[in-house]
Request: fold
Amino acid sequence: MPIAVVYCPLCDSVTVVDRRVDGKALEFGVSGLLLNSNVLLYDRTDNALWSQIGLGAISGPHVGQSLKHLSWHITSAGEVRKAHASATVVTTDTGHTRDYSMNPYENYFSDDRLMFPVARRDERLPVKARVVGVRMGDIVRAYPLEAVKAMPDGTLTDLLGPSRLMISADRDGGVRVIEVPPETQVAHTFWFAWAAFQPKTEIFGQQ
Reply:
């Protein structure tokens, strides 16, 4: 399956998607453009822009379409090694002078400042609260990871309409999408980004 693993450090956003649209596999690159402090992708076939947290194409022939979202698991390299001793790792020999052993955004993650503006702010949660955001049809919901970690065994079960959703989180930063209904779009991100793109979102546990 042709996939893309998408990450933006400005909003700590993670998605994994199937790159196929209308039977054609797209290849994506980083445009260098931002929308709501979230980097925009472009596909090399149509030079069209795609929004990760906006959940779809914003220009070109596929405007309004979304890629199929897949389940994912955020974990550490050490845990991967334990579970999959023969797993390969993408090389850090990129031709660029960069220390890949350090996180250049560590200070940015620790406070509420944003490097770039967003269209709207939502104060129901802290700016950089980590959430798993989901959209299934007209249902748009955010699951704060603090609420997930507070569940027995760190696993949260909820219903999206008649269908079940299960996600888990641990104290070491691990997050796993265990089960989501088909056609559900799901992303990990800071609250400010999800709220900017999805203004009608519900927050799990809040009325």
